[in-house]
Amino acid sequence: MPRPRPEFVEHACELFAPLGAIRTRAMFSGWGFYCDGLFFALVIDETLRLKADALSADAFREAGGEPFRYSYKDGRTATLNYWTLPEEALETPAAMRPWAQLALAAALRGRNGRRKRGACSASFPPT
């Protein structure tokens, strides 16, 4: 039996709904979000993080975001390119849209880069 989605995950689904077909999946200690098959966001410890890459990470950083960091049992740390976003983006689908579009574009570039060499250089900066 699948585990029920927490309220915060349901809220994130509502924020992402205008983007397309949103699917969630329980993973490790959190939840992964897919839009039209692209993995673009995750929630861990009640914190939403969106996918970024070399073309979009600066937008998240300039807005005060931080990348996802975690620690291994042996003390090593790792950083993933999933970033926090401004609090106001969590308020309405319209406020979330430009950030989610950045994440979807990064996910698409990542998927295209794995399928063939030479990733797309298009980006969707928040407006």
Write a compact overview of the structure shown:
The longest helix has 23 residues, at 93-115.
Explain the layout of strands and helices.
Layout: H1 7-16, E1 22-27, E2 30-35, E3 38-44, E4 47-51, H2 57-62, E5 67-71, E6 77-83, H3 93-115
Antiparallel strand pairs: 1-2, 2-3, 3-4, 4-6, 5-6
Account of the protein in words:
With 127 residues, this protein is an alpha+beta fold. The chain has one domain: YgaC/TfoX-N like chaperone (Yope Regulator, Chain: A), CATH 3.30.1460.30. It is built from three helices and six strands; from the N terminus they run αββββαββα. It has helices at residues 7-16, 57-62, 93-115, and strands at 22-27, 30-35, 38-44, 47-51, 67-71, 77-83. Strands 1-2-3-4-6-5 form a six-stranded antiparallel beta sheet.
